[in-house]
Design brief:
The chain is an alpha+beta fold. Helices cover 34% and strands 29% of the residues. It is built from ten helices and 13 strands. The chain starts with 5 loop residues before the first strand and ends with a helix. The mean pLDDT is 94. The structure holds zinc ion.
């Protein structure tokens, strides 16, 4: 088992093939506890979060954000994960308790829980007026295949994507992680074939990560037989950006009547953050005071 949550980025000698390998077990376990997800929902949410973390590691500026939104009209409802370039992610799932029987022992029905009648959307917020949004139809709802399809049809980058979450009998996350291999124009086909063969030889990624005790060693197995160099690394964590002040600001944007209406008999209002399930209690009069301070 790999103890720390982290990702590694590597390139081949010609810098035509890039690889991102992530171990996100602790991050997905924290999401499971915060959202109280079922086994299949943990897997779906964990895959989306891990994909967002890997893509977030390509962002340039500190404040840039990447958001993956998946909505396949399945029992899970929509799933959203937002990550930044510092390895921080937060996530939301509409129906965390939704679950389905496994397809066979060890194979959670993620595609069925997510559904296939919908879209896979990626938006990059680079601090401009409008975020850049790309959207492709869902293929399988299994997330990895959908992300590979997104890279190919939306960004014209052939990619190998593998995402896995291993859920224990007690619903705890035993391992989680992801692998993205991308071929830039001019990449040698034989190198890609070697990596594909290596990745296939590892079996399901979540099991391989569970068996392995070092992310560097795992990367060595993925890239076995080719010359490569590690060009970056990042610790990963679950982190929400909500705060008392931020939510108070949102409440203060409601009208006076609306604020009065949502307060309970004690004049208080409780708000729960969708992304981390943190609860905040506000006094209605504090919110109204905040409102009158605004110009
Ligand atoms: Zn939050």
């Amino acid at each position: 088992m790999i103890k720390e949550d982290r990702l590694l980025k590597a390139v081949d000698r010609e810098k035509k093939i890039r690889m991102i390998l992530a171990s996100s077990t602790g991050v997905v376990e924290e999401a499971r506890q915060r959202h109280q997800t079922s086994a299949t929902a943990s897997a779906a949410l964990g895959r989306v979060m891990t994909a967002a973390l890997m893509m977030g590691s390509d962002l340039k500026a500190e404040a840039d954000l990447i958001t993956i939104k998946v909505d396949g009209k399945g029992p899970a409802g929509s799933i959203i994960a937002t990550a930044n370039s510092r390895g921080e992610v937060r996530a939301f799932i509409a129906h965390p308790q939704a679950d389905l029987p496994s397809l066979y022992p060890g194979k959670l029905a993620v595609g069925e829980l997510v559904g296939r009648d919908g879209f896979f959307e990626i938006s990059r917020d680079m601090g401009l007026k409008q975020p850049f949004v790309g959207r492709t139809p869902l293929l399988s709802g299994e997330i990895a295949e959908d992300l590979a399809n997104y890279f190919l049809s939306s960004e014209q980058i052939p990619s190998l994507v593998s995402l896995g979450v291993l859920v224990g009998p007690d619903l705890g996350i035993q391992s989680a992680g992801g692998l993205i291999v991308q071929a830039l124009p001019g990449a040698a086909d034989e190198l890609l074939e070697i990596i594909e063969r290596n990745a296939a030889g590892l079996g399901p990624l979540s099991h391989a990560l569970y068996e392995c005790d070092s992310l560097d060693r795992m990367l060595g197995m993925v890239a076995y037989g080719i010359e490569y160099e590690v060009v970056g690394g990042l610790p990963l964590k679950y982190r929400c950006n909500c705060s008392y002040e931020r939510l108070a600001g949102i409440l203060a944007s409601l009208s006076r009547d609306e604020i009065v209406e949502i307060c309970d008999e004690n004049g208080a209002v409780e708000v729960c953050c969708n992304f981390c399930n943190e609860r905040y209690v506000f006094q209605g009069e504090d919110i109204l005071a905040l409102k009158s301070e605004k110009p």
